[in-house]
Design goal:
By secondary structure, the chain is α+β, with helices and mostly antiparallel strands. The protein is built from 21 helices and ten strands.
């Protein structure tokens, strides 16, 4: 890694000042120059120069290197959410590209600092990542590389099973113990009615001899034990499966420490998955604004346009987050500049009047800064993706047609397009899984419930994940889900899985009719 040459230092100072003048607010940002192989190395490590040793990083590096060598892909910039922010520039990029990347980076840093969904992230993660690497290497020296790697393999298959809303929840206050009855040794939660305690038959005058206090207390203790066995554990479903395993799985101290580190990293990366469209759209909006209005020289326009158009070009088989994000921010800015919002606008039935609507309010820039602050991708698109925007952008839903055996345009209807996009963003497009019971059927087994949202669980994928959950839990792992319209429990014991169908109320009614 190298410091910036004088020409780039001047460009950085110029672009930083323009960004501040436009209202962007960011942490101090440190730029470093790297060769293409160093950039691939950092990208393979998730943007951090130092990580723990694992084969998956090497595989990612090999893929990135081949993509660069064959001209299939190229990384222009890398920026880390940290205080200060760190960004990397590739030495082989021409000056105009370096300027574009700098403007892009400052907008990313503004988003990291000011977006609500990043407000709980660790701002010193670059140091903590290095500490995690050191601690894991020490465990490798202590217990052996293969054992640590196998444990990492298991944990990394379910490092997405966290609750992205957990950092924003206020921890519940510790319940206060109620005053105990002076005539009883049981608390309110454990109080046992006299009628519940089995007693030997006796005459009233023989009661104290036939059913002495020691015998009654023994019977109460048996009732308490039965209640504990039947009690639901946990009391409420837990979406943070990594946290549940960290607290209750029978782990060795070094395993618990590694799982804790991986969970911290999972929560650090979660907001990036929640705001990919907004973050890239915001950065693209501002690099476009800064470059075209302030920085570009006449001789650089064509090179800039070539790079920018390649970044925001529509992709044939998937949404381009850069394209969707920048266009939606521009659309919001235009609407609020012209006053195309509110009851008066929504109630207008004159299409011509609506198309030419312009109150000249000039609130667009203020609005997009507000949007940048409080939304994530899901709420961003749910709120601002409109039928007019879909028509302007020629949007459609695309998918596999089982009848023709081809991928085709499935619909141009706005509701279906929006539903398809929002569905793909809910829980970052991953199945919603929660721990329902840690002592399922009183056998110490784990029960995880899949919250079915219209698409069946991929059993082959779930099998790989749950097999690794089983490695930590040490007992069978059960998944309750719907498959082909039937309520089923899949039991994973580490080698294979068994499947059984649960009878539902509707099925029982159908059976009675038959």
């Amino acid at each position: 890694m190298a410091d910036l040459p004088i020409e780039l230092k001047k460009a950085r100072e110029e672009i930083e000042q323009y960004a501040k003048n436009f209202g962007l607010d960011f942490y101090p940002t440190i730029f470093e120059m790297v060769e293409f192989d160093e950039m691939n190395h950092i990208a393979a490590y998730g943007g951090f120069p130092t990580r723990y040793p694992h084969w998956s990083f090497g595989m990612e590096y090999e893929q990135l290197s081949k993509g660069y060598e064959y001209g299939l892909s190229k990384i222009y910039e890398m920026v880390i959410n940290n205080d200060p922010c760190y960004a990397y520039l590739m030495t082989s990029n021409p000056l105009v590209d370096q300027k574009l990347v700098m403007a892009h980076v400052y907008a990313h840093c503004d988003f990291f600092k000011n977006n609500y969904w990043f407000s709980k992230t660790n701002r010193h993660m670059i140091d903590d990542m290095a500490n995690h690497s050191t601690r894991i290497r020490r465990y490798i020296d202590k217990v052996g590389f293969e054992e640590v790697e196998n444990f990492l393999d298991a944990c990394l298959t379910f490092n997405n099973l966290v609750d992205v809303h957990l950092p924003f929840q206020t921890p519940p206050s510790k319940p206060q113990k109620k005053e105990e009855d002076g005539n009883s040794q049981d608390s309110d939660n454990e109080r046992i009615d006299r009628s519940e305690v089995p007693r030997l038959k006796s005459k009233d005058y023989m009661e104290s001899y036939i059913n002495p206090p020691e015998f009654i207390e023994y019977q109460k203790e048996k009732i308490r034990n039965r209640r504990k066995q039947k009690a639901k554990f946990p009391h409420e479903p837990i979406k943070d499966i990594m946290g549940f395993l960290l607290s209750f799985a029978p782990l060795k101290p070094w395993e618990q420490d590694i799982l804790s580190m991986l969970r911290d990293e999972a929560y650090y990366f979660a907001p990036q998955g929640q705001t990919k469209i907004m973050n890239e759209g915001w950065a693209s909006y501002w690099h476009s604004t800064i470059m075209t209005q302030k920085v570009l020289k006449d001789s650089e326009v064509i090179d800039y346009a070539d790079h920018h158009s390649g970044t925001v070009a529509p992709h044939p088989h998937r949404l381009n987050p850069y394209k969707l994000g920048i266009e939606l921010f521009r659309y919001i800015e235009d609407r609020w500049n012209k006053g195309k919002f509110g009851k008066e606008y929504d109630d207008c039935d004159d299409l011509v009047k609506k198309k030419n609507w312009n109150k000249e309010l000039g609130l667009g820039r203020e609005k997009i800064f507000e949007v940048r602050k409080i939304y994530n991708d899901l709420t961003f698109l749910d709120e601002f993706l409109t039928a007019d925007f879909c028509i302007e952008q020629n949007m459609f839903s695309f998918g596999y047609n089982a009848k023709s055996g081809n991928y085709e345009i499935l619909s141009r209807e706005f509701d279906k397009i929006k539903q398809s996009i929002l569905f793909s963003l809910t829980n970052m497009g991953q199945p919603i899984m929660v721990v329902e019971n840690g002592n399922f059927e009183n056998r110490g087994e784990l029960l995880i419930v899949h919250r079915h949202e219209g698409i069946d669980l991929r059993v082959d994928w779930a099998q790989d994940v749950m097999r690794n959950v089983h490695k930590l839990w040490k007992r069978p792992v059960n998944v309750l889900t719907f498959l082909e319209g039937k309520k089923k429990i899949l039991t994973f014991d580490g080698t294979d899985h068994k499947e059984r169908t649960l009878e539902t109320t509707g099925q029982r009614a159908e059976d009675k009719k038959k």
